[in-house]
C-alpha cells in the first residue's frame, strides 16, 4: 500500500494539468509539497502541449490498496 502525491497546476492555456508522483515518503510535509510545486513552476520544469505551468491549483496524497483477483480457467 503506497501513497501517491497528486499535484494539479494551471498552464498557459488556463487548463488544469495533473502530475502524479508514485510511492512518496509517508512523512511528506505540506512545506515540502509547496516548495516542490513552487520549484516546478519557477524553473519551468515541464512544458506540455498547453504550454508552461504557471501556477499551483491543489495537491493531495492518495493512498491505494491492490487486491489480486484469481483468474479462473474455462
UniProtKB/TrEMBL annotation:
Read off the Pfam families from this record. Answer: DUF2922
Query: What InterPro entries does the annotation carry?
Result: DUF2922
Q: What is this protein called?
A: DUF2922 domain-containing protein
Q: Which organism is it from?
A: Clostridium collagenovorans DSM 3089
Amino acid at each position: 500500500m503506497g501513497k501517491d502525491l497528486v499535484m494539479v497546476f494551471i498552464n498557459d492555456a488556463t487548463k488544469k494539468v495533473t502530475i502524479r508522483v508514485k510511492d512518496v515518503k509517508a512523512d511528506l510535509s505540506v512545506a515540502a509539497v509547496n516548495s516542490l510545486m513552487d520549484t516546478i513552476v519557477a524553473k519551468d520544469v515541464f512544458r506540455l502541449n498547453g504550454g508552461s505551468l504557471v501556477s499551483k491549483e491543489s495537491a493531495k496524497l492518495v493512498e491505494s490498496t491492490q487486491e489480486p483477483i484469481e483468474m479462473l480457467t474455462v
